[in-house]
């Protein structure tokens, strides 16, 4: 048991699409993740995140990101978990796609969130990585429902959701950082998922599934 993936099975998980590779972020990947985030994700003052982490000072951003990755790993348990998948395109780290669940054995529901650095936006990679996460959740984890949300001004995110078959699931007001925003919830079932015209390749699922009690 010398390989880290034998100790922490998620490190052996790899999801592959026609253009992307998604795999859990390891410590050696954190500098690349921080570099991608620092290169820019959104326009200044227009954060699409409920927690505006990208607006931290540059000398604090890296430590904040690393702490988040470590907390998510430490909190992984069969009933509730957050799987953080780094996104690689042409061997370059370009963003992150997460899959989160609470009381998964009973609810069979996941939620997703993601970010892409500016240099990788506009290439339909956001849709491809979300489709990968949904294919994995529905076909391998046996989820029945997937949810997401975005500020109502975030037409790009909501457009990706609509193209994959999500339906509106209510609007609520919330405070994101110092701003009060209208947030659109969306919901997708396995039966209404608009599947891509490619098949997801998955490696290392069995050990991850065993950890999650699936």
Tell me about this structure:
One of its GO terms (molecular function) is acyltransferase activity, transferring groups other than amino-acyl groups. Pfam families: Acetyltransf_3. 30% of the residues lie in helices and 31% in strands. It has 214 residues and is of the alpha+beta class. The chain has a nine-stranded mixed beta sheet with strand order 7-8-6-5-4-3-2-1-9, sandwiched between helices. A hairpin with a 2-residue loop joins strand 3 and strand 4. The two termini are 23 Å apart.
- Give the ordered list of helices and strands: HEEHHEEHEHEHEEEH
- Can you give the helix content as a percent range? 25-40%
Number of strands: 9
**% residues in beta strands:** 25-35%
Question: Major sheet: size, sense and barrel closure?
Answer: 9 strands, mixed
What's the arrangement of strands in the largest beta sheet? 7-8-6-5-4-3-2-1-9
Shape: globular
Return Rg in Å.
17 Å
* Oligomerization state: single chain
Low-confidence stretches: none
Average of per-residue pLDDT values: 92
Through-space gap between termini? 23 Å
Query: How many helices?
Result: 7
Structural class computed from helices and strand pairing: alpha+beta
